[in-house]
Amino acid sequence: MSDKTTVARMIDHTLLKPEATAADVAELVSEAARLGTYSVCISPSQLPVSVPEGLHIATVVGFPSGAVHPSVKAFEAAQAVRDGAEEIDMVINIALAKDGRWSELEAEIAEVRAAVPGVLKVIIESAALNDDQIIESCRAAEASGADFVKTSTGFHPAGGASVHAVSLMAQTVGGRLGVKASGGIRTAEAAQEMIKAGATRLGLSASAAILGELS
């Protein structure tokens, strides 16, 4: 079992609801600082945002569908970096994975990678893929220079993170990339299961409740 402080430093404290206001984001930042999370993850339109020292800023690109042109994702990523984002979570074009168009998927990720000097996380929407597609998507992310693979947006009707997907992703990247579990993690038990399966980062909106269950 990971302790409260260790888990907190694995959390991207997340607010991606489209109706979130500037006041909501300010509250998120304040809560993240109080909880000791690694970062806040917010929509790119909410950037720039002021955070206390030690708290990192993440945002999303091509979110939540992933079904936009790679050049648009790269532009969005570059703008987010200019606006202060240190980490970019990009959604892949899921159709490329479903169709097995791996060279195109690699090219898409590489185009965003070129626009991001900091950490790049690749959201593969694992609940919408079969095991072979999850494995090949992770391989494409690694081949394109990503730093993390990430399970889910949390917005797809197929669902969010699963222990099976996290384990499969962790086995595929073999510690060479981080693994972010995100989407539907609402209890400390679920968070611990993801960590045990190989998650090195957690995307959580229920951070306070989850950390409140830990000692």
TrEMBL record:
One of its GO terms (molecular function) is deoxyribose-phosphate aldolase activity. Transmembrane segments: none annotated. It is found in: Cytoplasm. It comes from Corynebacterium kalinowskii. Pathway: Carbohydrate degradation; 2-deoxy-D-ribose 1-phosphate degradation; D-glyceraldehyde 3-phosphate and acetaldehyde from 2-deoxy-alpha-D-ribose 1-phosphate: step 2/2. The gene is deoC1. PANTHER family: DEOXYRIBOSE-PHOSPHATE ALDOLASE. Catalyzes a reversible aldol reaction between acetaldehyde and D-glyceraldehyde 3-phosphate to generate 2-deoxy-D-ribose 5-phosphate. This is Deoxyribose-phosphate aldolase. InterPro entries: Aldolase_TIM, DeoC, DeoC/FbaB/LacD_aldolase, DeoC_typeI. Pfam families: DeoC. CDD domains: DeoC. It catalyses: 2-deoxy-D-ribose 5-phosphate = D-glyceraldehyde 3-phosphate + acetaldehyde. GO terms for biological process: 2-deoxyribose 1-phosphate catabolic process; carbohydrate catabolic process; deoxyribonucleotide catabolic process. It comes from the Bacteria. Its EC number is 4.1.2.4. One of its GO terms (cellular component) is cytoplasm. It is an enzyme of class 4 (lyase). Keywords: Cytoplasm, Lyase, Schiff base. The active site is at residues 89, 150, 180. HAMAP family: DeoC_type1. Its main location: cytoplasm. Belongs to the DeoC/FbaB aldolase family. DeoC type 1 subfamily.
